[in-house]
C-alpha cells in the first residue's frame, strides 16, 4: 500500500443535484459523504473500516450501566468561521437535529437520550439528557442502554454546527454550510458544481490529502465515464452503468479504473405477511426456494453475490454457515401444493423503474412463473413504490432494489428496527413485509442493551441469530448482496475500501492523488 | 396569315399545349401561331375557355407544371426561344421584357404583403433604383392607374381593396418596369368605364412612348375596337381568324366572329324602353300589382376594421358605404354602377348580412339586422349572391358539381340523383358541359369559373340575387346567353336582381332602375330611362361618355 | 376502389402499403411467426458474463439484456405499438382537429374560451397527470392509449387553431355563408379538408413520437408493464447499450421509423389523391 | 392591440391559477408522501409525523392550497421540502440555462426545418425530397438519449470539437442545441413542406414569377410568409415542450436547466419545486402561445380585422 501524497485537485461527478449540506437534514447517499467531510462529530471511523474512533472527542467514558457517556472535547478545534468548538455547540447541534422545526429525518436516532420525547414532541427545545459542565465536557444521560449510541454520535445528524452560522443563514444553512470538518465549501453554483477546499486548520495532521475537490452535478453516468476515460474526470461518483460495465472491465486499463467494493447492502423481496396467500409461511418459503439467484447475478454481470439472509456478509453478525433456502423448484412446488396452491396463484410484484431493477423483477417474475405463481410486475417511480409498501394490504411483493440503500452505520441493529421490526410495520413504515414478531423484537431490545464494549462479540452473535431465525418465517426473499462499483482515474490513489467506505460512500478525507 | 412586313418582336409558331387530366392528356391549344409586331397592339378575343389565358401563360413560361405542358411549338422573343430558355434566363425576360396582368386580381396578389411592398419589389428587381426612389415610382404608378390616396394604399393589403382597385394595382405592377411586351389578360374586366378608359389610355401612352407591344386579351369588343391594331379570334384552342382590326370588324370571315360581333351590346341600344327586353313567351304578370318590396335598404352604413383596432390605430377610415337607401321589388332589377372602390360590393355583401353593418335591411319582410346564422338560413334561401371574384369564392377542394349542388344540400333539397340532374341542367344553362361537374375550379378558365358561380347562385331559385360583376369575365356570346337566362328567370319566377356592373351597356340592358355610386354614397338613382337618357350628376355623365364604342373607326380614347 | 388503384400505381405509396400490411400481419401473426416466447429469458440467451447476444442464426436479431429473443419481442411489440401509434395518436389528432378547428372558427366568447381551455391544457404538465394516473389506476394498454391521446391532442389543436384562423378569412367561406351553410357544414365540409396536410403530418409523424412516448410513460410506471413488449420500451430498456449492443436500439428504431414512414407515404398519397389541386402529378 | 394584450395577460393569470389548482390537486391525490421521502428508511413514525406537521401536509386540501396561493400572490414560490431552500432561487439559478438552450434549440430546429422543408417542397417527388423526408422521420423516431450520446461521442469524444459537458461558453451550447434541432427539425420540415406545396400553387406565386423575381425571393418573400402560420404555432408549442421536456438532453450534456430540477423533484415528491417549475413552464407556454397569437396577425393581415 503506497503512502498517501498531499495535494492535488480532484473532479467528481454525480447525476443528481446535491440536495442540501445541512447535516441535520441531508440524508441521501451523495450528500452523505460530503457532509461527513464538511463537519466533524464526537466520533468517527477509521477510513475504509467500520471501526469507531474518537474524533472531536479526545477521550470518552461509558458508565457501567451504559446510561451515561462522558466526552472530553479536543482543544483548539475551530469552526471554519474561526470560532472555537465548545461543548454547548455539540448540545445545540443534537437538539437542532431532534427539533421538529428542523424537519430532519434523523431525529429518531437520538431516541435514547433523556428528554428526547419532550423535544421531538415540541414541548421543549433543550434535551435534558445532555449536560455541558464546561466548554470541554459533554455528558449524555440515556433513558435506556443503547449499544449503538457511539455509532449514533458518528452519523451525520450528530455533526457539530455553529449556532451563529445557522442563524445567519436564515434557513439556508444547507446551502451555506459552516463546520469544522476536513473541507470547506468554497463555491456552489446551483445545478452545476460545488467546490470544496481543504480546511487548513483541520485538527488531524495531513488530513485530508487533496487540496480541493470539485463536484459536478447533473452528469449522466455514461458521459461521466467517457469523460473519465478522456481524463477529464477523476471519479465517476455514480459508478459504472450496467451497459458499460463489461466494456470497461474487459478493456486494457479496466482494472485500474474499476473499484469493486463490498458494501453493506442486501437486495430482497418483501412478502407481505398480511396479504393472502403470503400470510401462509409455506407459501413464503416456497417462493424463497423458487428464485434463481445465480441467474440474477449473471444479469448483473457478476456484480453481486447471492444472498440467503438479511445481513450482508460484511456486517458483524453475518452467519457464514447459514444456507437459507436453496434454489429448488421441485421442492418449492411441493411446498406450494402443501399450502393449498398446487396450481399457483396470481400476485403483484412492485419494483422501482430504474435499470436494472425492472430487469431483476422480471427475472424473479419468470422464476415464480416456473412454480405457477403469476406475478404482475409493476415498475413505478420510487416514491410510488414506497407509498405502496407503506400502505397496509397494498403490495404483496416488493423488490427492494434501488431503495434498500446502504446502512446508516455498520451495526446489525440498523437492519432490523425499521425494516423488519414491529415499529416499522405501521402505515407509512418501511417494514413492507408487515412482519411483526414480538419475541424477536424483545430479543432485539435485549441485544441493543448489551452496550458493554466487552460484549461486542456476543452482541453480534445475538443479532446474527435473530436474522437467521427470522428466515424461518421467511418474510423476505434475500436475493443478492450487490457490490458497489466506482470508476476512478488511474492517478487516484488509496485502497478500494476508501472509495467504497462502509460508513461513507467516497471518503474524501482519505483519497489522494498519486503524482 | 398577316402580311405585315415590319419585324415581329414576338413570334409564336405552332404552339400546342396539353393538359394532364385523370383521363389522360388533352390538347387545349392546337397549333397556335401569330406574330406581335413591335409597337402594335394585338387583341386576342374569343369565347371563354378558348385558350387565351393558356396562350399568354405559355409565353410567360408560367403554365402550371402539374397540369399543363407545352407539347410542341416555338415562342421567339428576338433571338431567344422562350420555350427552350433556361429558368434563369427566363427570369430576366419576365417582368423586364414581358410583363403580364393576370385575370383574377384577388388571388393574384400576395395576401400577406402590403401593396407597396409588392409594387416596389418589381421595380427594384428590374430597375434597381436606390431606396426611396422605388417608392416614389410606386406612388406614381398608383396615381397613373387612378387609385385614390396612393400613399395610404401602399400600406394596405390586398383584402382591403375593392376588386377594381386590386386590378389596377396589378396593372400598375406590370407597367412599372416599362416592359417591351405587355400581356394583359382581361385587364379592365373589373373596372368601371371611366377607369377603364384611363387604363386603356395609359397603355397606349406606354406603347407610344416606349414602343412597347401589347397583347390584350379581352372579351369586350368595345375595347378591341378602341385598342387593337390587329385582332386574333380564338375558339376551342385554335386561332380561327386574325387580321387587322378594321377588316375583322367590317369583314369578319368566320361565322363565330360574326356571331361575336353581332352579340356586342351597345349603349343606347335599349333607349326608350322602361324594362329590359322580354326573352320569354310568358305574358307579363309583373306590372299588374305592385307587390311588397323584396329588399328594403335604409340608411345602410358599413365601416371596415374592428372597433378595437380603430380605437388604437387612432385613424378612422372613412365609411366604405354610408347612408345608402333603396328598394327592390320582385321581378325588378336595380343596376348599381359606379367607380371602382365606391362601395358597390360592400353594399351587396351588407344587404345579405355577410359583413357587419348598421342601418335597416329587410329581405322579404324579415329584418336581418342581428340575426344568427341559423335565423338567416330561410332568408338565404331566397337571397343569393354571385361574388365578384369567382376563383376566390369557390372552395378549391370541392369539385364543381358538388359546389353547385352545395346550396341544395345545405337546404336539404332533393335526393342525390335529383341534385345531379339539377347540376347538369344548371351547367347547361350557363353554357358548360355537364361533365364539368367532376372537375375542380383551378382547371377552368376565368369565364368558366364565373359561370359556375352563377349556376351555384341559381340553384336555389332564389327571389333575390345580388350579382356582383357576374358577367364581367364572359365573352359576349356567352354573356348574352347568361343575361338572357337571367332575364328569363326574372320573367318566369319574378326574380329581383341587384345588378352590380361597370359595363354600362349591360346595365342598360338589364335594369329597371339604376343607382350610381361614388365614394360610398348613391349620387343618382332613378329609372333606367331617366338615368341613361337624362343623366343629372356630372359623374354619371362622365361614365356615359367613357363607354368604349365597338367600332374601330370611332376611337374616342386617345 | 379508384383511390386504391391510383395508389397502387405510385411506387412510393405501394411501398408504404406493403410495409404497413407487413407490420399489421406481424402483429396479428406474432404467436405463429415468433420463434420463441417473447417473455422467455433464456439462460443461454446471455453470454457467460451476462451480455446480450448479437444477431445469429439462432437468435435472428440477437437477444436483449435478459436473454430474450429480440425478434420475437419485436413481433409481439408490434401489437402494443400499433395500438398506441394508430389508436392513441389517431384519437389525439381527431380531438386536436376538432377543438382546434372549433376554436379557430368560432368567434367571440365560445371560441376564445375553447382556446383558453386548450392553452390551459397545454400549460398543464402532462407528465404529472400521467404519474398521478399511474399511481391511482392500474396501468393497461388502453389507459396508456387514453393518456397519450389526452396529452397529445393539445398540440394538434394549437396548430389547427392557427391555420383555421387563416382559412376562415378566405373568400370562399364567405361565399358558403351566403349560401346559408351552417357552421357545421362550413367546418366539416370546407375547412377540415384544407387541414388534411397538417392532419397527415401529425397523424404519421405522431406515430413515431407516440410510440416513443409510450416508453416514457412505461418508465414512469403508467405504460405497458414488463414483460409485455412494445417497440418503445424495447428501445428504452436498452438505449444505454447502444454501443455495447447496438442491435437492441437499431432494430426497434428501424421498425418504428419504417412504420411511421410507410404510413406517411400512404397518407401523402392519399392526400394527393384527395386534393384536387394536386391532381395530375405523377 | 394593447387592449388585446392586456386581456390576454389577464387570461394568462387565470390560466396560471387553473394550472396551479389542478397541479396542486393532482399532487394532493398522489399517494406518495413527501414527508416519508424526506424521512427515509430509518426515521421513526413520530419523526415522519413531525415533518408532516412542519410542512403543513396534515392540513386539509383547501387550507394547503390557500396557503400556497397566498405565498404566490406575495411572489413567494415556497421552500423546497428536500433542499430546504427557496424555490424561487433554485428556479432562477437554472432559468438562464433553460432559456439559452430553448432559444438555441428552437433556432436550430426552425432553421434546419425551414431549409429542409423548403428544399423538399421545391424538389417535390424527387430524390432530394425523398431523402429529406426520410431524414425527418429518422429525426422524429430516434430516441433522444441515443442521438445525444452519438453526437457527443462523435463531436466531443472522438473529434474533440466541443466540450463534452457543462455550461458557460458558446461551444457548450452547440451539441445540446444540435441534438434538439435534429430531433425537432423533422416536424418543422414536414410542416413547412406541406404548407409550402400548398402555397407554391397559388396564383400570387405565379404573379411573383411573372415579375421575374429570383426563386430565392419568391420562396422567401412570397411563399414562406404564407406558409408560416402553422410554424409559428409550432414554435409556441415547442417553448412549452422545452421548458419541461428536455430532461434527457440536459442530462446527457450536463446542462443545468430546469428539466433536471423538475425531474429530481418529481422523484422526491418535492411539491414546492414541482409547483414552481410547473408554474414557470406554464407561464412560458402561455406566453409562447400569446406570442404566436400576436405574431399570426402580423404575418397574415387578414386575421387582423378580427
Ligand atoms: N376587408 C376590407 N378591409 C378594409 N377596407 C376594405 C375592405 N374591403 C373593401 N374595403 C374598402 O372599402 C371601399 C369599398 O370597396 P368595395 O369592394 O365595396 O368597392 P366596389 O365598389 O365593389 O369596387 P370595384 O368595382 O372595384 O369592385 C374601398 O375603399 C375598399 O378599399
Ligand atoms: N390547370 C388546368 N388543367 C386542365 N385544364 C385547364 C387548366 N387551365 C385551363 N384549362 C382548360 O384549358 C382551356 C383554356 O383555358 P383558358 O384559361 O386559356 O381560357 P380563356 O380563353 O382564358 O377563357 P376565359 O376568357 O374564360 O378566361 C379551358 O377549357 C380550360 O378548362
Ligand atoms: Mg382566361
Ligand atoms: Mg367590387
Ligand atoms: Ni367588361
Q: What does this entry look like structurally?
A:
The complex is a heterotetramer of chains A (515), B (558), C (282) and D (306). With 515 residues, chain A is of the alpha+beta class. Chain A is built from 16 helices and 20 strands. In chain A, the strands form four sheets. In chain A, strands 1, 8, 9, 10, 11, 12, 13, 14, 15, 16, 17 and 18 form a twelve-stranded mixed beta sheet that branches. A four-stranded antiparallel beta sheet of chain A has the order 4-5-7-6, with helices on one face. In chain A, strands 2-3 form a two-stranded antiparallel ribbon. The model of chain A has no long low-confidence stretch (mean pLDDT 87). In chain B, a hairpin with a 2-residue loop joins strand 9 (230-235) and strand 10 (238-244). In chain B, helix 5 (131-144) packs across helix 7 (163-175), helix 8 packs across helix 21 and helix 16 (416-429) crosses helix 17 (446-458). Chain B starts with 7 loop residues before the first strand and ends in a 12-residue tail after the last helix. The model of chain B is unreliable at 284-289 and 308-315 (pLDDT under 50). With 282 residues, chain C is mainly alpha-helical. Chain C has a single domain (2-31, 70-278), classed as MetI-like fold. In chain C, helix 3 (70-105) crosses helix 9 (196-220). The longest helix of chain C is centred in the first third of the chain and has 36 residues, at 70-105. Chain C starts with a helix and ends in an 8-residue tail after the last helix. With 306 residues, chain D is mostly helical. The model of chain D has no long low-confidence stretch (mean pLDDT 84). Chains in contact: A-C, A-D, B-C, B-D, C-D. Chains A and D meet through helix 6, helix 13 and helix 14 of A and helix 2, helix 3, helix 5, helix 7 and helix 12 of D. The structure holds adenosine-5'-triphosphate (2 copies), magnesium ion (2 copies) and nickel (II) ion. Chain D: This is Peptide/nickel transport system permease protein.
- Biggest sheet layout of chain A: 12 strands, mixed
- The rounded Rg of chain B comes to 23 Å
Oligomeric assembly:
heterotetramer
Given helix and strand content, the structural type of chain A is: alpha+beta
What ligands are attached or bound here? Answer: adenosine-5'-triphosphate, magnesium ion, nickel (II) ion
Cα-atom radius of gyration of chain A: 23 Å
Helicity range of the residues of chain A? 25-40%
How many strands appear in the DSSP assignment of chain B?
20
User: Quick one: overall form of chain A?
Assistant: globular
Strand content of chain B: 15-25%
Give the largest interface pair and sizes: A-D, 64 and 57 residues
Distance between the termini of chain A: 15 Å
| Discrete helix count of chain A | 16
Question: Spans of chain A of 5+ residues with little confidence (pLDDT < 50)?
Answer: none
What's the architecture of the largest domain in chain B, going by CATH? 3-Layer(aba) Sandwich
Major beta sheet of chain B, specifics?
A: 6 strands, mixed
Amino acid at each position: 500500500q503506497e503512502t498517501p501524497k498531499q495535494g492535488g485537485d480532484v473532479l467528481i461527478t454525480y447525476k443528481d443535484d446535491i440536495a442540501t449540506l445541512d447535516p441535520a437534514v441531508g440524508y441521501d447517499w451523495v450528500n452523505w459523504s460530503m457532509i461527513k467531510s464538511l463537519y466533524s462529530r464526537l466520533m468517527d471511523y477509521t477510513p475504509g473500516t467500520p471501526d469507531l474512533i474518537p474524533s472531536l472527542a479526545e477521550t470518552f467514558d461509558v458508565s457501567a450501566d451504559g446510561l451515561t457517556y462522558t466526552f472530553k472535547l479536543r482543544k483548539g478545534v475551530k469552526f471554519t468561521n474561526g470560532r472555537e468548538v465548545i461543548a454547548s455547540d455539540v448540545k445545540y447541534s443534537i437538539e437542532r437535529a431532534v427539533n421538529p422545526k428542523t424537519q430532519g429525518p434523523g431525529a429518531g436516532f437520538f431516541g435514547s437520550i433523556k428528554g428526547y420525547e419532550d423535544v421531538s414532541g415540541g414541548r421543549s427545545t433543550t434535551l435534558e439528557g445532555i449536560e455541558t459542565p464546561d466548554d470541554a465536557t459533554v455528558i449524555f444521560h440515556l433513558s435506556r442502554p443503547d449499544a449503538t449510541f457511539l455509532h449514533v454520535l458518528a452519523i451525520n445528524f450528530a455533526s457539530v454546527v455553529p449556532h451563529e452560522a445557522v442563524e445567519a443563514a436564515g434557513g439556508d444553512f444547507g446551502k451555506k454550510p459552516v463546520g469544522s470538518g476536513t473541507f470547506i465549501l468554497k463555491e456552489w453554483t446551483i445545478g452545476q458544481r460545488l467546490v470544496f477546499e481543504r480546511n487548513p486548520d483541520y485538527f488531524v495532521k495531513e488530513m485530508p490529502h487533496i487540496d480541493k475537490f470539485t463536484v459536478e452535478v447533473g452528469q449522466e453516468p455514461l458521459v461521466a465515464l467517457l469523460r473519465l476515460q478522456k481524463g477529464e474526470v477523476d471519479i465517476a461518483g455514480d459508478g459504472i452503468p450496467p451497459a458499460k460495465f463489461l466494456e470497461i472491465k474487459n478493456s486494457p486499463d479496466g482494472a485500474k479504473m474499476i473499484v469493486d467494493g463490498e458494501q453493506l447492502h442486501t437486495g430482497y423481496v418483501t412478502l407481505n405477511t398480511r396479504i393472502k396467500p403470503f400470510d401462509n409461511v409455506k407459501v413464503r418459503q416456497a417462493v424463497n426456494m423458487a428464485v434463481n439467484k445465480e441467474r440474477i447475478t449473471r444479469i448483473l454481470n457478476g456484480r453481486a453475490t447471492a444472498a440467503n439472509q438479511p445481513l450482508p456478509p460484511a456486517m458483524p453478525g453475518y452467519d457464514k454457515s447459514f444456507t437459507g433456502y436453496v434454489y429448488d423448484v421441485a421442492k418449492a412446488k411441493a411446498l406450494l401444493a402443501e399450502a393449498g396452491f398446487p396450481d399457483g396463484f396470481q400476485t403483484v410484484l412492485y419494483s422501482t423503474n430504474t435499470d436494472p431493477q425492472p430487469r431483476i423483477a422480471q427475472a424473479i417474475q419468470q422464476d415464480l412463473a416456473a412454480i405457477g405463481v403469476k406475478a404482475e410486475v409493476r415498475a413505478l417511480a420510487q416514491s410510488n413504490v414506497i407509498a405502496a409498501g407503506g400502505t397496509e394490504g397494498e403490495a404483496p411483493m416488493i423488490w427492494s432494489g434501488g431503495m434498500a440503500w446502504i446502512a446508516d452505520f455498520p451495526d446489525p441493529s440498523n437492519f432490523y428496527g425499521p425494516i423488519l421490526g414491529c415499529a416499522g410495520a405501521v402505515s407509512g413504515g418501511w417494514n413492507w413485509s408487515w412482519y411483526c414478531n414480538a419475541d424477536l423484537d424483545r430479543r432485539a431490545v435485549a441485544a441493543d442493551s448489551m452496550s458493554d464494549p466487552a460484549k461486542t462479540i456476543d452482541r453480534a452473535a445475538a443479532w446474527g441469530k435473530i436474522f437467521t431465525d427470522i428466515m424461518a418465517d421467511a418474510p423476505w426473499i434475500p436475493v443478492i448482496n450487490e457490490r458497489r462499483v466506482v470508476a476512478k482515474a488511474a492517478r487516484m490513489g488509496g485502497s478500494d475500501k476508501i472509495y467504497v467506505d462502509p460508513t461513507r460512500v467516497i471518503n474524501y478525507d482519505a483519497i489522494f492523488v498519486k503524482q | 396569315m398577316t402580311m405585315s412586313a415590319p419585324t415581329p418582336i414576338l413570334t409564336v409558331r405552332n404552339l400546342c399545349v396539353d393538359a394532364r387530366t385523370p383521363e389522360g392528356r388533352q390538347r387545349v391549344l392546337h397549333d397556335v401561331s401569330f406574330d406581335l409586331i413591335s409597337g402594335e397592339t394585338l387583341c386576342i378575343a374569343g369565347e371563354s375557355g378558348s385558350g387565351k389565358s393558356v396562350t399568354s401563360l405559355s409565353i410567360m413560361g408560367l403554365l402550371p407544371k402539374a397540369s399543363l405542358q407545352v407539347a410542341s411549338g416555338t415562342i421567339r422573343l428576338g433571338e431567344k426561344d422562350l420555350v427552350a430558355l433556361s429558368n434563369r434566363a427566363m427570369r430576366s425576360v419576365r417582368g423586364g421584357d414581358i410583363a403580364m396582368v393576370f385575370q383574377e386580381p384577388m388571388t393574384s396578389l400576395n395576401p400577406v404583403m402590403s401593396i407597396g411592398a409588392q409594387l416596389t419589389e418589381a421595380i427594384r428587381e428590374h430597375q434597381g433604383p436606390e431606396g426611396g426612389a422605388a417608392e416614389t415610382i410606386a406612388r406614381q404608378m398608383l396615381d397613373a392607374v387612378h387609385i385614390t390616396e396612393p400613399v395610404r394604399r401602399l400600406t394596405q393589403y390586398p383584402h382591403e381593396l375593392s376588386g377594381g382597385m386590386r386590378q389596377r394595382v396589378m396593372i400598375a405592377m406590370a407597367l412599372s418596369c416599362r416592359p417591351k411586351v405587355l400581356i394583359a389578360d382581361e385587364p379592365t374586366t373589373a373596372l368601371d368605364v371611366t377607369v377603364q378608359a384611363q387604363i386603356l389610355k395609359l397603355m397606349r401612352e406606354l406603347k407610344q412612348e416606349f414602343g412597347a407591344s401589347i397583347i390584350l386579351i379581352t372579351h369586350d369588343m368595345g375595347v378591341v375596337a378602341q385598342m387593337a391594331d390587329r385582332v386574333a379570334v380564338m375558339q376551342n384552342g385554335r386561332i380561327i381568324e386574325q387580321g387587322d382590326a378594321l377588316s375583322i370588324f367590317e369583314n369578319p370571315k368566320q361565322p363565330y366572329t360574326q356571331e361575336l360581333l353581332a352579340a356586342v351590346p351597345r349603349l343606347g341600344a335599349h333607349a326608350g324602353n322602361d324594362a329590359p327586353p322580354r326573352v320569354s313567351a310568358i305574358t307579363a304578370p309583373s306590372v299588374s300589382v305592385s307587390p311588397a318590396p323584396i329588399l328594403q335598404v335604409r340608411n345602410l352604413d358599413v365601416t371596415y376594421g374592428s372597433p378595437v383596432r380603430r380605437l388604437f390605430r387612432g385613424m378612422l377610415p372613412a365609411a366604405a358605404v354610408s347612408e345608402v337607401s333603396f328598394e327592390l321589388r320582385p321581378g325588378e332589377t336595380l343596376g348599381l354602377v359606379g367607380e371602382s372602390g365606391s362601395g358597390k360590393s360592400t353594399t351587396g355583401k351588407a344587404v345579405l348580412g355577410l359583413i357587419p353593418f348598421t342601418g335597416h335591411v329587410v329581405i322579404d319582410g324579415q329584418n336581418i339586422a342581428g340575426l344568427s346564422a341559423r335565423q338567416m338560413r330561410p332568408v338565404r334561401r331566397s337571397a343569393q349572391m354571385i361574388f365578384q371574384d369567382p376563383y376566390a369564392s369557390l372552395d378549391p377542394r370541392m369539385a364543381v358539381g358538388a359546389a353547385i349542388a352545395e346550396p341544395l344540400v345545405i337546404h336539404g333539397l332533393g335526393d342525390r340523383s335529383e341534385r345531379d340532374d339539377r347540376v347538369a341542367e344548371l351547367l347547361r344553362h350557363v353554357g358548360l358541359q355537364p361533365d364539368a361537374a367532376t372537375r375542380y375550379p383551378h382547371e377552368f378558365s376565368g369565364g368558366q369559373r364565373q359561370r359556375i358561380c352563377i349556376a351555384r347562385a341559381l340553384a336555389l331559385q332564389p327571389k333575390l340575387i345580388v350579382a356582383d360583376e357576374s358577367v364581367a369575365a364572359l365573352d359576349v356570346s356567352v354573356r348574352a346567353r347568361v343575361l338572357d337566362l337571367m332575364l328569363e328567370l326574372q320573367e318566369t319566377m319574378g326574380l329581383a336582381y341587384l345588378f352590380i356592373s361597370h359595363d354600362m351597356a349591360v346595365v342598360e340592358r338589364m335594369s329597371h332602375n339604376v343607382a350610381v355610386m361614388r365614394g360610398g354614397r348613391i349620387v343618382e338613382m332613378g329609372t333606367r330611362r331617366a338615368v341613361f337618357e337624362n343623366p343629372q350628376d356630372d359623374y354619371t355623365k362622365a361614365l356615359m361618355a367613357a363607354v368604349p364604342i365597338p367600332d374601330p373607326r370611332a376611337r374616342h380614347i386617345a | 376502389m379508384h383511390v386504391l388503384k391510383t395508389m397502387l400505381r405510385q411506387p412510393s405509396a405501394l411501398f408504404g402499403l406493403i410495409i404497413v400490411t407487413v407490420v399489421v400481419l406481424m402483429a396479428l401473426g406474432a404467436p405463429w411467426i415468433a420463434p420463441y416466447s417473447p417473455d422467455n429469458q433464456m439462460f443461454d440467451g446471455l453470454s457467460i458474463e451476462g451480455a446480450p447476444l448479437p444477431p445469429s442464426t439462432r437468435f435472428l436479431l440477437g437477444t436483449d439484456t435478459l436473454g430474450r429473443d429480440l425478434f420475437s419481442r419485436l413481433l409481439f411489440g408490434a401489437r402494443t405499438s400499433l395500438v398506441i401509434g394508430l389508436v392513441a395518436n389517431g384519437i389525439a389528432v381527431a380531438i386536436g382537429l376538432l377543438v382546434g378547428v372549433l376554436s379557430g372558427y368560432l368567434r367571440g366568447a365560445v371560441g376564445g374560451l375553447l382556446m383558453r381551455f386548450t392553452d390551459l391544457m397545454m400549460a398543464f404538465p402532462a407528465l404529472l397527470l400521467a404519474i398521478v394516473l399511474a399511481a391511482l389506476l392500474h396501468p393497461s394498454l388502453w389507459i396508456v392509449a387514453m393518456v397519450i391521446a389526452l396529452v397529445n391532442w393539445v398540440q394538434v389543436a394549437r396548430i389547427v387553431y392557427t391555420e383555421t384562423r387563416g382559412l376562415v378569412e378566405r373568400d370562399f367561406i364567405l361565399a358558403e355563408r351566403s349560401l346559408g351553410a351552417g357552421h357545421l357544414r362550413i367546418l366539416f365540409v370546407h375547412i377540415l379538408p384544407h387541414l388534411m396536410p397538417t392532419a397527415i403530418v401529425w397523424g404519421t409523424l405522431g406515430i413515431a413520437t407516440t410510440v416513443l412516448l409510450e416508453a416514457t410513460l412505461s418508465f414512469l410506471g403508467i405504460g405497458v408493464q414488463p414483460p409485455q413488449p412494445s417497440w418503445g420500451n424495447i428501445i428504452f430498456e436498452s438505449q444505454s447499450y447502444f454501443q455495447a449492443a447496438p442491435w437492441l436500439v437499431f432494430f426497434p428504431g428501424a421498425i418504428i421509423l419504417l412504420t411511421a414512414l410507410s404510413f406517411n407515404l400512404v397518407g401523402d398519397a392519399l392526400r394527393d389523391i384527395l386534393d384536387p389541386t394536386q391532381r395530375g402529378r405523377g | 392591440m394593447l387592449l388585446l394584450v392586456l386581456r390576454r395577460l389577464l387570461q394568462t393569470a387565470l390560466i396560471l391559477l387553473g394550472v396551479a389548482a389542478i397541479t396542486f390537486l393532482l399532487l394532493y391525490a398522489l399517494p406518495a408522501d413527501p414527508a416519508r421521502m424526506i424521512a427515509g428508511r430509518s426515521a421513526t413514525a413520530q419523526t415522519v409525523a413531525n415533518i408532516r406537521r412542519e410542512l403543513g401536509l396534515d392540513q386539509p386540501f383547501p387550507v394547503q392550497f390557500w396557503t400556497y396561493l397566498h405565498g404566490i400572490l406575495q411572489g413567494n414560490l415556497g421552500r423546497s421540502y428536500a433542499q430546504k431552500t427557496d424555490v424561487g432561487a433554485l428556479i432562477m439559478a437554472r432559468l438562464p440555462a433553460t432559456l439559452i438552450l430553448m432559444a438555441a434549440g428552437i433556432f436550430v430546429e426552425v432553421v434546419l426545418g425551414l431549409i429542409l422543408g423548403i428544399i423538399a417542397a421545391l424538389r417535390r417527388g424527387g430524390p432530394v425530397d425523398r431523402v429529406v423526408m426520410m431524414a425527418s422521420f429518422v429525426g422524429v423516431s430516434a430516441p433522444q438519449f441515443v442521438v445525444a450520446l452519438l453526437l457527443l461521442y462523435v463531436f466531443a469524444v472522438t473529434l474533440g470539437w466541443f466540450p463534452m459537458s457543462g455550461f458557460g461558453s458558446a461551444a457548450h451550447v452547440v451539441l445540446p442545441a444540435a441534438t434538439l434541432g435534429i430531433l425537432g427539425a423533422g416536424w418543422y420540415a414536414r410542416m413547412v413542406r406541406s404548407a409550402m406545396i400548398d402555397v407554391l400553387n397559388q396564383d400570387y406565386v405565379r404573379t411573383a414569377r411573372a415579375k421575374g423575381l429570383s426563386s430565392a425571393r419568391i420562396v422567401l418573400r412570397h411563399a414562406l410568409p404564407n406558409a408560416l402560420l402553422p410554424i409559428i404555432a409550432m414554435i409556441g408549442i415547442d417553448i412549452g415542450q422545452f421548458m419541461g421536456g428536455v430532461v434527457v438532453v440536459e442530462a446527457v450534456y450536463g446542462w443545468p436547466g430546469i428539466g433536471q430540477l423538475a425531474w429530481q423533484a418529481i422523484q422526491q415528491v418535492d411539491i414546492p419545486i414541482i409547483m414552481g417549475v410547473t408554474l414557470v413552464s406554464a407561464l412560458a407556454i402561455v406566453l409562447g402561445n400569446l406570442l404566436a397569437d400576436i405574431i399570426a396577425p402580423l404575418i397574415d393581415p387578414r386575421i387582423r380585422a378580427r
